[in-house]
Amino acid sequence: MVTLGDYLIVSGILFAIGFAGVMLRRNLIIIFMSLELMLNAANLSLVAFSRFHVQPNGLPNYNAQVFVFFIITVAAAEVAVGLAIIVALFRARQTTNVEDITSLKF
Amino acid sequence: MPSFLFWIFALLMLVFGAAVVINRNPIASALNLVVSFLGLAALFMSLDAFFVGIIQVLVYAGAIMVLFLFIIMLLDLQAEKLRKINWVASAGGIAVALALLAQIFHVIGNLKAAQHTFPPLTRSTIDDVRNVGLVLFENYNLPFQIIGILVLVATIGVVVLSRRELR
């Protein structure tokens, strides 16, 4: 049978993949996609805890699923704003590579 | 859910998630991310969270990834040229990610509840849109309205950012 730990480990591996993407890649859009992977890993563990914590009325704990709903909404808003910033940056610099964007470098 | 289905979908999600990071072409990365999200939606369904699974497919695999593909098309990004790889930085990034993974494994290994299987549900969750909606509007009414304001602000912000000249 599948245990709670299996879901948490899968979620942790997904989070680590997203984290490695943020650390390793140099393309802003890929970094952004890796951020989405990390958000989704957190969502998976939240839903697993929701199903694990069965309420006295025999239903899963819906507070966690409402939380996931909020995370998905905020992620959608974040993607819209972030991609608009990337487009504005591309207009100004003609690049999406983080190594070429060094104006704030000390 | 039978455990082999869980492992199939988990493996699908992880393999395509890794392909997002490995692929050199941004469009291939975006399409791999769609498949990864579909595997994740199947895992949500396996946890009896049908509403969240449907939202995952509609909002993430549908709306957000279309936005990503649209921006990649708009910017006309090609596959990245082979740059000189900074081996020190790459090794450092992989080491930090592996350290994080080791810590997650350590915490889950020490968690007593992680050994337990999921307790059975005594009621059907087939109408869980109604249940999620009841919790959302009864207990989280104010956060829900704040989220509405946030989405409105994001929309206005995107319009301002996308104007020809920023002043």
How would you explain this protein's 3D organization?
The complex is a heterodimer of chains A (106) and B (167). By secondary structure, chain A is mainly alpha-helical. Chain A has helices at residues 4-24, 28-52, 62-93. Chain A is elongated. In chain B, helix 2 packs antiparallel against helix 3 (50-75). Chain B has two domains: 1-80, Four Helix Bundle (Hemerythrin (Met), subunit A) (Up-down Bundle), CATH 1.20.120; 125-167. The mean pLDDT of chain B is 89. Chain B has 167 residues and is mainly alpha-helical. Classes of the chains: A mainly alpha (106), B mainly alpha (167). Chains A and B meet through helix 1, helix 2 and helix 3 of A and helix 1, helix 2, helix 3, helix 4 and helix 5 of B.
Explain the layout of strands and helices.
The complex is a heterodimer of chains A (106) and B (167).
Chain A (H helix, E strand, L loop, with lengths): L3 H21 L3 H25 L9 H32 L13
Helix pairs in contact in A: 1-2, 2-3
Chain B lengths: L2 H20 L3 H21 L3 H26 L11 H24 L17 H12 L1 H21 L6
In brief:
The complex is a heterodimer of chains A (106) and B (167). Chain A is mainly α and 106 residues long.
Supply the helix-strand structural class of chain B.
mainly alpha
Form type of chain B:
globular
How many domains in all of chain B?
A: 2
Instruction: Tell me what portion of residues of chain B adopts beta-strand conformation.
Output: under 5%
Tally of extended strands of chain A? 0
Structural class of chain A: mainly alpha
Give average pLDDT of chain A, whole number. 91
Defining key terms:
heterodimer; A: 106 residues; mainly alpha; Helix Hairpins; elongated; B: 167 residues; Four Helix Bundle (Hemerythrin (Met), subunit A); 2 domains; 6 helices; 0% strand
